[in-house]
Amino acid sequence: MTPPLSASKQSKLLLSLRLRLRTQSPILLLRHLSTEPNPPQDQDSLITQALQLLQSPENESNSTQLHNLLFSSSSPSSPALFRNITRRLSSSSQALKFFHYLQSNSPSQDLPSCSLPYTFQAIFEVASREPDSPNKLLELYRTAKEHNVPLTINAATLLVRCLGRAGMVDQALVMVKELDPSLKNTNFCNVVVDVLFRSERADDALKVLDEMLQPDVECPPNDTTGDIVFGALLKREWPGKSVNEEEIVGLVSKLGEHDVFPDTFRLTQMITKLCRNRRTGRAWDILHNVMKSGGVVQANSCNALLTGLGRDGDFERMNKLTAEMKEMDIQPNVVTFGILINHMCKSRRVDAALEVFEKMKEGSDGISVEPDVIMYNTLIDGLCKVGRQEEGLSLMEQMRSQKGCAPNTVTYNCLIDGFCKTGEIERAHELFDQMNKERVLPNVITVNTLVDGMCRHGRINSAVEFLNDMQSEGLKSNAVTYTTLINAFCNVNNINKAMELFDQMLNSGCSPDAIVYYTLISGLCQAGRMDDASSVVSKLKEVGFCLDTVCYNVLIGGFCKKKKLDKAYEMIKEMEQAGVKPDSVTYNILISYFSKSGNFTTAHRMMRKMIKEGLTPTVVTYGALIHAYCLIGKIDEAMKIFRDMGSASKVPPNTVIYNTLIDSLCKNNEVELALSLLDDMKLKGVKPNITTYNAVFKGLREKNLLEKAFELMDRMVEQACNPDYITMEVLTEWLSAVGETGKLKNFVQGYAVVETELALQEAGCFSVVLECVPPPVAAAATSALRIPTIGIGAGPFLVDRLDD
User: According to the record, where are the PPR repeats (predicted)?
Assistant: First the structure.
């Protein structure tokens, strides 16, 4: 601690100060004395006496005493004295009155030139504590200008802060412009920048900041400047101004040149915000600017960038950043490794994640980090998602051996989900039982996972029983549970059970979400129970949900199937009133309905309206018209639409449309045209299926075009298009009648996938060819060709006896 000055030294210092006050300019003195210390203790009594005289009724005696007290040779005048007297006055009006007294009564040679500015500074301080202070301060500022009293930097700072808080930013800026530039310091500029940012005047704030960033400026930025600017940059937006990523990177770089950096918290926030806005490249630039400029970078900031890079799948940069962290001795933590492992698992790079995990545990890179439960769970989930549940189980055993890493509910949920997805429901149940034995509490996700797994694999009743058991044990279900079950029962057309579950859901106090309602409405519409569907729609609206386009389409389609066109139109009208715009599916439903009803005029009108609404007809649109024309035998009209698809609309036909046309042409004995369409399919890359070939085979049989049939049979084998019952019935009947059973036998043998030799004890030693063929083919072929079969495995095998 610095020792106190002696009385003689204090006297000499005060005398020297007075000489400087008299010889130097007021502006320079204001700069030197802007942080003048409080008056010494011996002035306290003088201040108290002055205040008593100032606050007493005015008379000549008091005036004389005050004058002698303030301006006598035994009472040295100083800026601090007058300032502190002013500060203790009860109001700004009294303070201003005292200022006028000093101005009028003090002998010029006894009043330091900086006393009046400091006195006025004190007046500002008093006024700032009074009601309606911003307006009083403005009025006082005008008074100071009228009396040619320059502002101290502290007074100017106080004015800017108070006016800014009151929203009088324009008035504050006027004062800032009028202030002597030589007075401005970093603290003052910081206050101006802060006020402007808080007032959402980002452009003006950035202009002041730009002045601070100029070379050799007298008010360079400091850490406080950085806190203000970096805090402002983290705001979402400013009205009328959007600071883009380039500007943010530029500001961080420029402030870094003055050794001003964001702290770890703000740097992490900034990087996180940019990464969330998909501006990972800019986040990368900011972090590396700080690194290169010598700022402090910790693992948290790197973790934020690693998270963004992982979300973008940029594993190359993730590896580069982790290498840079090692070079710069930035110690990664468990979160760092967790991020790397998590994103590797999400991208199904589980082996790479396991490699990182092992290196982390072993400390092979000089950094040993103990894995936590979250990291183990991430790896187990990653393994289960790629079907490696057994490895996930082994990893759970590792968890048990590590202190503080006991498997929890999430661990078991991941494993149960993995086994459910592969159909190993019993293994999933075993894990559930083990979970209960270890007193790891299951949650609603556990229940939902098992219910979903059982429903997906056809064990719906078991899922219901399991749910009932869980509910009896106090484990509540949620909307997801009921949605899964309702959807499962709808898929097997057990609508009554679905409705029962819906009612149970309502009675259990579980609020259905919109998906539950949509699922039930869809199932009821598919079952043709439109009255029940309408009832569910009413309940949906009662609880505040709205129908979406898909749900409206389901209802419109359901009413059209029941031939309730008025209800369908009612739905369309309601749809438009709700502001839900019909899409191409809506129009396709109506076009299909009118086409099937034979009302082609309305169907084509709907199609024109669809185009007018800016919707492009799809292959479904054309398919509905083509199918309807073919049904009533108007093949020419169907072919016309088919040609329009390729020429005018540029909508490529699919296999279904080709099949519809080919089948109709063959039935009308126009096999040649059907064959040309088959060639057209090959030309356009549309793959024919068994329905296509069956239609053509029927047509060829009518005209007995054997060679073309043989050609198509070879093409089917090449394309691995498996025949079905219809194929074999058509070919067997036709080829047997014309004595071409050998061709049929070769055709069946073309589907061989297994060849082996077998010794049959009862038949002697001879070669046997086993071909595993589709059961329908086997049944038809063995019957027609009298080929013996034996049952092996899941399906019959054809046995072809060949001589030695």
Answer: 298-332, 333-363, 372-402, 408-442, 443-477, 478-512, 513-547, 548-582, 583-617, 618-652, 654-688, 689-723
Q: Which helix (H) or strand (E) holds 771?
A: strand 767-772
- Compute the distance between CA of residue 426 and CA of residue 428 in angstroms, rounded to an integer: 5
Q: Nearest-5° angle of CA 365, CA 370, CA 372?
A: 135
By three-state DSSP, how is residue 369 classified?
A: coil
Tokens of residue 686, six digits = 């549309």
Does residue 754 contact residue 710 with C-beta atoms inside 8 Å?
A: no
Three-class SS of 502-548: HHHHHHCCCCCCHHHHHHHHHHHHHCCCHHHHHHHHHHHHHCCCCCC
Q: What are 261-271's pLDDT values in tens digits?
A: 988 998 998 89
354-385 pLDDT, tens digit per residue, is 988 888 877 666 667 788 899 999 999 999 99
Is a pLDDT exceeding 60 seen at residue 728?
A: yes
pLDDT digits (tens, 9 = 90+) for 30-51: 333 344 444 444 667 777 877 8
CA dist list (Å): 414 to 344, 433, 482, 497:
17, 15, 21, 30
Q: Cβ of 396: how many Cβ atoms within 10 Å?
A: 22
Residues 6+ apart with CB under 8 A from 696: 662, 666, 671, 674, 675, 678, 712
In the three-class reduction of DSSP (H, G, I as helix; E, B as strand; rest coil), residue 75 is classed as: coil
The average pLDDT across 770-778 equals 45
> In the chain, how many H helices and how many E strands?
43, 3
CA neighbours closer than 13 Å in the CB half-sphere of residue 423: 2
Question: Does the pLDDT value for residue 416 go beyond 90?
Answer: yes
Q: Are 29 and 21 in contact (CB under 8 A)?
A: yes
C-alpha distances (whole Å) from 196 to each of 74, 165, 507, 759 are 48, 10, 57, 96
Question: Whose CA is closest to 98, among 76, 123, 77?
Answer: 123
Three-class SS state of 768: strand
Distances (CA, A) of 695 to 653, 667, 688, 715: 18, 8, 11, 15
Show Cβ contacts of residue 558 under 8 Å, excluding neighbours closer than 6 positions.
Answer: 524, 525, 526, 528, 530, 533
The token duo for 776 is 């329908």
Closest CA to 450 of 432, 473, 468: 432
Beta strand 789-792 pairing with 795-802: antiparallel
Angle between helices 334-346 and 299-312 (to 10 degrees): 0
What number of residues does the chain have?
804
Q: Per residue in 135-187, pLDDT tens?
A: 988 888 898 888 888 888 898 899 899 988 888 988 888 888 888 888 889 99
Residue 83 pLDDT more than 60? Answer: yes
b or e along 204-228 (b: 16 or more beta carbons within 10 Å of the residue's beta carbon)?
A: bbbebbeebbeeeeebbbbebbbbb
Q: What are phi and psi of 767, to 5 degrees?
A: -80, 140
Query: Tens digits of per-residue pLDDT, 87-144?
Result: 888 888 888 888 888 877 776 555 556 678 888 888 888 888 888 888 988 888 898 8
